């Protein structure tokens, strides 16, 4: 891997056609939608007279639909083409983000977030393939650009949510709809239709790909990691109980660390220590961080929330490399199968964490999340043989970011 991450494949990462920048820019906004609601979760609960467990369903409905839609995205894009799939996904996000902002009950908002999740799944699962097909400088530069979009979106989402949400919890949803509408127009103007795959993808291809032991091991381990990840993302805002601005600042710092460690630090650690060692150590350290977060005072909880972004960045990069490189399935199919499994944890954690607090106390959800991270690390250790392919090479292939 080049020492300069912005000089991949013999060309500069920044010298890209307008179509690539249009798709990458829309990807940033798409990933912003994941963390957008973080700073305003307490405000939404207050505005709609809902409990934390009810509001957490915003994540559950979003990611449950996203998980199921992973079986559909390849089927759709291999038939109507990448450009039309991107535009369909963007159109759905614009519609359902706007409807989310006009909700009058938490039930309506949860339902509209589900529609948003379908649109986002169609978009983000197709964007990487489109960027790779249109980018200059080879696939490595394209994938790194996609990872950068992921990190920037995850960092800026909470910030946008805080700035707009300080006036009203409805404004971040309207703002996202407007930004995605701009992305729709940019892709319409600059992106030409990409060549369709020679073979159409069936609905069951991603499930069949999970028959490979290595891919299944990576997916199941990532399932437990994602439970820990989304406990932080969806439950911590209620624990911190801060104003939208302050909560947005905390999760902006979290997102910055996620971006830096995903794009810059993780590849260097992999080169030196190997992917599986890095992943196992990162999961164990994340578990320790979660325990300290759960039992520390307010300032310690803030610090641990921010620090968890570093472990999230490392884990996202390594897991995706495992998913894309451990089996002989085509990358889009392997990615769909992997994401189909792991996004179910993203749907479960936001719902279960507040429920666990109701059944026990505020510390226990973080203990459960820490245990989940350790289970993910144990699977990596036990299944090391089936995961050792490109994962242990000193020069890992740059990964698709977590979509």
UniProtKB/TrEMBL annotation:
It is a multi-pass membrane protein. It is found in: Cell membrane. It comes from the Bacteria. Keywords: Membrane, Transmembrane, Transmembrane helix. Pfam families: MFS_1. The chain crosses the membrane at residues 19-37, 57-78, 85-102, 114-136, 143-165, 171-191, 212-235, 247-266, 278-296, 362-382. Residues 19-388 form the Major facilitator superfamily (MFS) profile domain. SUPFAM superfamilies: MFS general substrate transporter. PANTHER family: MULTIDRUG EFFLUX PROTEIN YFMO. This is MFS transporter. It comes from Streptomyces oryzae. The lineage of its organism: Bacteria, Bacillati, Actinomycetota, Actinomycetes, Kitasatosporales.
